[in-house]
Amino acid sequence: MRNWTEKKFQKTAQEIPRSTSYFSRQWKNILLEQKLHNLRENPPNDDVVFGHGEAAKKVDDEPRKERKTFELTFDYSVTLNTARLIKNSSTLSAIKRATTKKCKEELSDVACKLKNNQLIPERLPNYCPRKGSISGSSLGCFHDNNQSRLLSSYGVKLPGLTIQKCVDLCTQSAFMYAGTHNGKECYCGNKKPSLEHLLTRTYCSVACDGQSSQTCGGVDSTEIFDSGVPTRDSAKLRDPIINGTAKIAFILTLNGRALRQVTRLLRVIYRPHHVYLIHVDSRQDFLFRSLLQLELKYPNIRLTRKRQSSIWGGASLLDVLLQSMEQLLEVDSQWQFVFNLSESDFPLRSIESLEALLAANPGRNFLKSHGRQTRQFIHKQGLDRVFHQCESRMWRVGDRVLPAGIRIDGGSDWVGLARSVVEFVTSPTHRNDPLLRGLKELYRYTLLPAESFFHVLILNSKFCESYADNNLRMTLWRRSQGCLCQHRHVVDWCGCSPMVFRTTDWTHLTSVMAKSTVFFARKFEAAIDQSIMNRLEEQLTNSSLNYPGLDSYWESAYHRADLIPKTNHALLAVSLSLSKHAISLLLQNSVVECSGLRPSRIVSITSYFRHDHYLGDLIHFEVDENNVEFETLVKPLTKTIHFMNSPRILSTLQVGSDFDPKEQVLRNRLGVLSSTSKPVVIFKWTGHVNSTTAQLSHLIWFDPDDHVRAVHHVNLTDASKMNNQMLEIDTPLKPGVWLIAVVYDGKKIAMTEFLIVPQIADENLQFDEKMNELQKIWENYLPVDAKSKNNRREKALLMKNDISTYLEKTTAEYYAIQDICYTGHPPQCATIQLHDWQSCSNTDWSSFSQDPKSKLS
Q1: Do residues 738 and 753 make contact, with C-beta atoms less than 8 angstroms apart?
Q2: What range(s) does the WSC domain occupy (predicted)?
């Protein structure tokens, strides 16, 4: 073994590039030392080779068949200190996955500070003691055992136990009493022990595991201490004052493109005497640009220019709130409370009724606690982990111990705060306050920081008695749907999100309103269910709504003025082809030549909904004739076939992208896919499955060359659930028409097809041309009729020779032109047959039609 290891060590040394720099020499020594240690402890089997890049092929002189190679790569830009953290898998994973040098260096720096205990404070002060109590004071030694535990709320074995550790643990969880038992055990509770169990101190003589000079209870006895923490109960809210008033500042933190939902929210909550500050995510040009005009009309509405990328769970969410609060103090000196809202919020009661409640409760702070055991909350919330935000992602760096001495709490990040707290948090005067400064350091590296920062600050400060355990909000939680890790693309964590309210939730919504003090609810999304918002507004105004366009909703998908996000060229190519098709249909019966109506540029694309159903996208485009523009309504066509000679056990089969597993909808509504897209097929069973037959079906993906690209084996599940399966292949998708066949019990029961839009840039991509080993097994499920085969060959040839013509012909098969209208003045050639043309403002479907519910007036 020794000779083998030494030989292996020599090989390993040759694998690392030589360098004359001190850093590289030290780095090399660390890697060699670690790899030698690993090889000695875990010598590989004969069929396994460890190596660095190509060096893995040189370990043995004689190559072996079926050899497995594991790549062990290192990033030499990582600092020396990070190299010493090589055993921290979270750190290494984050650094490896980060793409920019800046982010890698930041992660490295955070990891080093964490390792050296320089990242967060070890202890913070608590300025909210329980009256008449002294933290850490002993109540005495009490008879106690497993059969009748005096402090039964929480207990744990703590290696290295000291009295202070136990008191700190119970303080953190807001328990009033802490007890040490048998040298290693700590118990917490809120019930003061009866003196009938009191023993002499000699019964509590077992030395503490972490400090032998202290005693930590006995075998059947516990020494109990006062933690000094106040009771968990908060003072009740006073009843609203009739006609009472309070000036409110609203912070709207907005994301997405739901402009009309935002303006509708503003219309309902707007009052001239309140203040409104809007923060739009830095990646949302359209929303920011569209809302800027409000500043010109309304002096009490401001858009902050200090914009950040407010990703789910990001540290930037707290930064946004603190910066917005600081700006509000500069903008207006009279407001008394601040509430934060999002584009997904909607009021349940009038703003006047909220003012009446606030007038009766001056100085109160409205926050909602988690309602769980604190230890469970800390773990599920990830508060005991270190996260760092860069590259618009929250990276998990490692584990940490929270500062001792303070109570930890949290829950919702939607809060209502008194001005006094906002002034304390943002004023330079209090910048060096030990508690405030320490919490800001702590939450700089915390996931979902706004969900607990204000809770912890208020409960441990002079404001603790102002805490009201009610944030005046209502949310709809369904853990089975809301906790599906749908945010993994932006955070190294599996979090939960509330559901969107739908009309079917009306009874639940109104019942909560009847028995709870709530003024706002979330989430609402007009693109999913606008009807419930209409009912709420009718209830708010105590009137029947009769707006034009009340049951319609429009949401932007693209605008040519957008700088961010990057232009989707496949979407524009399809939209231009559909615009040409719409014009050709408009002119097919015209006796007048209209040569100037050739579509030239896409202006915008808007998704259109009516009665809570998606009816298509509106493509607004320019033509060659000056000052003439059109808008056409197009709708994707279903390309799914259910075979008659097979059991009808599948009710839904559709391909798209951007699937939302929580709401079970495809967010890419128009369904345009390119070579770099990640297609997902969604499917739903009918519930008519015979339990005596097979419970497994197969999804076979065929590319435009009829090659099998993937086969997924899926179980037949509950008919109420929408299932999804993503096509996960490493290479770009070949342009053209793809097929998916669904096979059950040996029979093809359904088939659908989808288009990967060809683009000029595809010529630079490398497509997988290899034949899948499963080809022979599954190719029998391809269409066998000659017409289908010839059609696919002809399309492939046309795409190769003329992409533009191919798109114009193919998109006509995948989309239907529903209607078309002109904006502004009609085209010149329309004057003779004006009755054949319609103005967009006179329709009920165009994005230019009336929509007073979404206009702030």
Answers
A1: yes
A2: 135-228
